Amino acid sequence: MLSIGTRGSDVTRLQKHLKAAGFNPGGVDGVFGSRTKAAVLSFQRAKGLSADGVVGPNTSQRLFGSRDSKYWDGKSDFSSAPVNPGGGGNTPAKVQRFINTAVAQTGKPYVFGAEGPRAFDCSGLINYALRQAGVNDSRTTAAGYQARFAGSRVSRENLKPGDLLFIWYPNSRGIPRGTASHIEIYLGNGRSMGTDNPSEGARAEPVDWSAVVNASRVPQLYR
Questions:
Q1: Average pLDDT of 32-41?
Q2: pLDDT by residue (tens digit) across 3-34?
Q3: What string of H, E and C letters represents the secondary structure of 155-197?
Q4: Region of 59 on the Ramachandran plot (φ > 0 left; ψ -120 to 50 alpha; else beta)
Q5: How far apart are CA 122 and CA 134, in angstroms?
Q6: 98 half-sphere exposure, CB direction, 13 A CA radius
Q7: Are 23 and 49 in contact (CB under 8 A)?
Q8: pTM of the full predicted structure?
Q9: R_g (Cα) of the chain, nearest Å
Q10: Average per-residue pLDDT in the chain?
């Protein structure tokens, strides 16, 4: 169960999903405090659940779409081991420039629709870093990039740094499960770079594998 005092990646996921669903848990910091409990209570009342401020199987089903205990057992399920981080060779120059440009934006604020260089949203950061790496593709949304690069999908086992991760979180924009509501850049070693939270801005963090829909490689970075 997730309740007051619980810490870790399960709480980080909980806070992101609550925020995406319109229930403000305060900061996304991985700490289940009074603000997070208040958001859980509000969510439970809104969904007709027993309002106890504790996340168990019933609340998990409504919030995450699953009763699986990995969502609420308080144990980290983020990958801590490398997932083919180097692809067995040197990273191409364009790919490295793409990664370096994105990482250099760390700390810049999240603003919906922003394309940089002072602020970004998730797809705006991708567009900016791609252009700096010499890929002059048009700006689109996370779902747009998912469709654009559908022909160059890669499995989790074959991920390389610089690949795009397409992520779905519950949202108020009507984006259905399976279609990306968020996009990040895979950095290797189970970490990614992106931005989706006004309180944190652009940053690198552990990948929430449970929310990853699929991943793709950008062919233009390898030409």
A1: 94
A2: 998 887 788 889 988 988 899 998 788 889 99
A3: CHHHCCCCCEEEECCCCCCCCCCCCCCEEEEEEECCEEEECCC
A4: alpha
A5: 19
A6: 29
A7: no
A8: 0.69
A9: 18
A10: 89
Query: How many residues appear in the chain?
Result: 223
CB neighbours (10 Å) of residue 80? 10
153 contacts 78 by C-beta, under 8 angstroms? no
> Could you tell me the CA-to-CA distances from 138 to 47, 131, 145, 222, 223 in Å, in that order?
39, 9, 10, 18, 18
pLDDT of residue 129: 97
Question: What distance in Å separates the CA atoms of residue 148 and residue 160, rounded to the nearest whole number?
Answer: 19
**How far is Cα of residue 160 from the mean position of the Cα atoms in its chain?**
17
C-alpha distances in angstroms, 32 versus 25, 35, 130? Answer: 9, 8, 36
pLDDT digits (tens, 9 = 90+) for 145-170: 999 999 999 998 899 999 999 999 88
Quote the DSSP letter at residue 152.
G
Q: Residue 118 has what DSSP assignment?
A: S
